[in-house]
Amino acid sequence: MNRASLFATLDHIENLPTLPAVVLEVNQLLQDFETPIESVCRTIEKDQAMVPRILKLVNSAFFGLRCGVSTISHAVVLLGFNTIRNAVVSVGVIDSFGSKQQLAGFDITKFWTHSVAVAVTSRHLAERSHLHYAGDAFTAGLLHDMGKLVLFRYFRTLFEAAWQSSQNCPVSFYEAERKELPATHADVGAYLVKRWQLPHRLTDAIRYHHSVRAEVADRNLLLIVHAADVIVNRLDGRSDDSPPDLTRLHPDAAHRLRGCLENLTDWYPAAEDEIQSACQFFFAG
Ligand SMILES: [Fe+2]
Ligand SMILES: [Fe+2]
Prior knowledge:
mainly alpha
């Protein structure tokens, strides 16, 4: 299978995971800056199951706000469209894809724990470095590896070929994908997110999180998600307090985020607590 036929197949998969209708509608409305607040609120409120989860998320510490809003319209006025879009997308993605439904051979719990960890860490990096708006960082982090789910579900043979190769060589899964597959999970995730009409800066952060480049819609967001992924992978399961080996970081990320990286072991424990509460929020019950 070549790259074109992989994406053509993706286009024709009828039951390709889709976000709840309300998320797509909100994204569509927010393409237009002139959209009245009432239209956005009315659209979100159509999905009554989602409303309390969105409010709980924007009031949560791990989303970085803890702002005490009690209605969608109050949230939109206070936090703005962009934050609301991020909250709606985050809740929608977990509602659609985060089910505990087990996929044999793929550790879905580990997958989501990693994604949530990268989301929270991205948010911390954005806030601490002042390089980017924190809400975008959280959402991009949450979605950065979505392509793995799609490859696993719909292109199982390809996924397994890359997996085997990463075990045999051994190289990272991404390096094995580049060697064995017509497209990587980063390409596939970006393709999916583009279909959901999310802003280009999010699509680019997903597409290039393993292959940082200069020509992207928002370089700071890309550097943050890339760095968060490296940090989480390095700190995952570590048992001592020594500084993690971050040599895999792109030099620009190491340079621009230097302040946050130097005192990483001071702030990361707080982030870990937030990762735990974010996992509980998204997956409990
Ligand atoms: Fe990845
Ligand atoms: Fe990752």
